[in-house]
Structures are given as structure tokens and as C-alpha cells.
Amino acid sequence: MRTVDWYNGKVRMIDQKLIPWSLEQVEFDSYQAVANAITDMTVRGAPAIGAAAAFGIALAAQQTPGTTASELIENLRPAAAYIRAARPTAVNLMWAVDRMMAIAQNEQASSADDIRALLLAEAQRIADDDVAINKRMGAYGAELISDGDTVLHHCNTGALATVDYGTALGVIRAAFEQGKKFHVLLDETRPRLQGARLSAWEMEQLGIPYDILPDTAAGYYMQKGEIKLCLVGADRVCSNGDFANKIGTYQVAIMAKEHGIPFYTVAPTSTVDLDLHSGADIPIEERDKAEVLAPYGHALVPPHFHARNPAFDVTPNRYLSGIVTECGIIRTPFVENLKAAVGERR
Ligand code: MRU
Q1: Does the structure show a pLDDT above 80 at 109?
Q2: Which of 49, 222, 271, 292 is least enclosed, having the fewest CB within 10 Å?
Q3: Alpha-helix residue ranges (DSSP H) falling in 142-280
Q4: Are residues 259 and 157 in the same domain?
Q5: What pTM was computed for the model?
Q6: Domain containing 151 — which CATH number?
């Protein structure tokens, strides 16, 4: 079952708010509802958000009046702006919307209906490519894992964070499919618990040995010499290799360096934003404090208590051993090597 797909003229998604307690799909018949599902994290994870956005534009094109290409394109602009604003940090969202709008703009000579069909085909291509790219990254990255290793992972980067298969968890999955014997430690990832709820659920499905860790425990196991490798995903990688990922990634990176543990991010080139030259420029989402005070509605403290809830942090490139992409494992110098990888994709 794909995390997001097109079904009967609607956008269908696994409702990630319900996992691990129940596996249910929800269907959306308006682009506004698709954008809201991105905002409320029914669908989350940078590549899955990108695919959802692409299907959202395809859906908007079906809903939008217009008989000529230029009418349709004009009418699609508000939908593109609305979907783009659903979440600020994962650049896959903007990448997908821009790619979809470019398809429409390049087809000015076609009829509006032709463009509607092309947009749907393009969204399907983005989704299909995502799965193929994840498998390629898995094949490249699996060489980083050896028999007997313990691998630390942060947040959820698996099938649920993508259309299928996963990025960092895709590497773990590929190594497991190759028959390697290793153990995974999953940071629980407060406040939304993507590690405990989603990554652990995926490990259960795949039969990969794992333990959930309180976020505060990673340093303890690094100090004991148990952790041999850290793998995380990314929401936006800058041209110099600085990258944003789920809050808490930065402290994992610092601890890994202190203990001499290799630390990799696994990200498709659609997550690379060559227009941003340093992590300081990445917009970081601040979410509702209720997610900290009362995760999933379970009050930990009275609701009037104060809290902050940054959803992402930025890890400077100096902590990175490398970036696993569909073009191979990229190492320093990141500026040259990322540019070449993105060029190869184009
Ligand atoms: O807030 P989320 O759950 O969308 O954050 C997800 C992450 O930070 C992932 O690590 C990242 O999107 C990469 S997913 C392959």
C-alpha cells in the first residue's frame, strides 16, 4: 500500500496520525483538503509531502474551470500558492509544485484537458520515481552497514515518509534484504513520536530487530560504544551540505562526532535546494505548543503551561560523513559534488 496515491479521481493517503493503532486510508476530493492533510500531518515526511502536493495540483486541475491552457494555468495559480504554503521546511513540497506548474506552462499550445491529463501523468511519475529512487539510495547506502552493527535512526524516514520504501530506513531495509544481521535503535522523536509510532511500526512489519530509545538516551549508548552508524533523513539540503531535519538531529550529529561515529543523511536530489547556500537560510517550521504539552491529545501538563515547538533543526555540513543520494554517496567538497549530482538528475 502506497503512502499516497491517486484513486478514483481522488487523492488517497494513509492516515499517519492513526499509526500504530490502526492502518486506515483517507480520500480527498479538493486541493484544499490535500494541503490541510499536509499541514496537520496526515501525510508527512519530505518525499511523501512532495508526492501529495503533486497529486494536489493534479486534483486542482480537475476541479478548476478553464477551456484554454492559459485560462487553466491562471486558475491553477491560487491552488499552487495554497499547497506551497502547507508546510515551510521540506523543499520537496515547493519542488513538486514548481515541477507540476512547469509542465502546465510548457504546454501552452495544448488544450486544457490535455494539460489536466499531463498533470496527472506527471504526479504519477513523481510518485513512481520516488519509489525507484529510494531503492537506488538503499542499494548505495546498504554498504555502510556491516554485520553486527547497531544503527541509530532519528524520526521516520521509511515507507511512510515517502511514497514507498524509504530513505534512511530504506537503506536499513536494503541492508536487511541483503541478509545483513544488525540492530536498529530508534529515537522516539518527541514531540510527535515519529520514531516510536511510525518507524517502530515499520520495523515490526519488516521483521527488522529494533528498540525504541528515549531521545535522551542516544549519547549513553554512543559512550558505551554500542552505536556504529547514525542514519537520518533530510527536509532540505543546502548547496553546501548544511541540512534541516527533524528536531533533535543536530544533537545526534554533535554526539556522533564527539564519539567518532559516522553520521549520514539519506536524501533524494529533490531534497537538495541549490538556491540556499547555508543552513541559516532554511525556514524552520514552528508548530503548535499543544503538540508538546498534550501529544495526540494526552495532556502531560496543564494546557496553560508555556512551551516552544520547533519542528526541525539545522545540522552544519561539518558533522556529515556523507549524503546518500540516488546518484551515489556524496562526500566533501559538498558544493561541487551536490551541484554535479543535481545536474545529473536534470
Ligand atoms: O515533521 P515530519 O514528520 O514531516 O518530519 C520528517 C523528517 O524530518 C524526516 O526525517 C524527513 O522528512 C525525511 S523523510 C524521508
Answers
A1: no
A2: 292
A3: 168-177, 200-206, 218-223, 249-258
A4: yes
A5: 0.97
A6: 3.40.50.10470
